[in-house]
Amino acid sequence: MCPKVSVAMITYNHEAHIAQAIESVLMQEVGFELELIIGEDCSTDRTREIVLSYASRFRDKITVVTSEQNVGGQHNFIRTLSACSGEYTALLEGDDYWTAADKLRAQVAYLDANPDCAICIHDVDIVYEDDSGRPAERFLGDGFQEVSGIEDLLVRNFVPTCSAVFRTAYMPSPLPGWMRDLKLGDLPLHILVAEHGWVGYIDRVMGVYRKHGGGVWSSSTLVNQLEGWMEALEVLDKHLGGHYSRQIACTLFGAHTEASSSLMVLGEVDRAHAHLRSGLGSALRCRPVPLRRMTVALAEVYAQPLARAYRHVRYGKS
Description:
Blueprint: E1 5-11, H1 18-26, E2 34-40, H2 47-57, E3 62-65, H3 73-82, E4 88-91, E5 97-98, H4 103-113, E6 117-129, E7 137-138, E8 147-148, H5 150-153, E9 165-167, H6 186-194, E10 198-212, H7 222-239, H8 245-265, H9 269-283, H10 291-315
Parallel strand pairs: 1-2, 1-4, 2-3, 6-10
Antiparallel strand pairs: 4-9, 5-10, 6-7, 6-9, 8-10
Helix pairs in contact: 7-8, 8-9, 9-10
């Protein structure tokens, strides 16, 4: 008999956090069968030891998917998802955790009551475990819309990964091979599932998304995140048969120009110009063409160099 919910948890070098993640699954108060599939990718710390210890104690609930060699985050994500057999699949990475014991029960009830809903999400707290001193903050915040669609996902990757529960039948089997080459794994999955229905939102905080130095995505630079996001959008545009090309082009324009501005601040002029050129090319595919935003993007990138050139010509200094 298949479980009602499969929890897909990928982990790598999460020694300090993995036990709390697993415990937050085990604490779930549900009236249905639940399985936890942990994809452990040959961690170099004690993560595997901790995971195997839990698996030996909870043989009826926990299955470990692993190998003798590190396969990388995307491959680990795909093989873990592929091992899930539940009617619904919930996502939880090994450095995040759930805070509400009725989280899964509430989301399953929502999905059961709304057969046209493909993914159910909720809000989470972002906790900064670095030296910034930033207080915790909500991922989505007040007023987030209850129903979203694929068009919204193509504007912003708004789904907190640790909040998502989706209908497993809507996940392609096997998953597309192109997913293995992307830096970003959750957005393509959400898009693939959202092709079959809408995204429903429960206005409760029921989990924590950690930002820390050991997090593969949260510790990457803004530009690297933007480049991963743009790469995924380009591939998804082809997968979606061009039906959302205008929307994707507008999103790419914004991402390219944001990357360009950030790179100019960092002094990486050539990369900044490359992103700006790509962004302007994307803007020309938008309808209507955002001429004002194109002008602002050009000004943001070239204002400082032009000012320096002017000072050099007039005053003989940079």
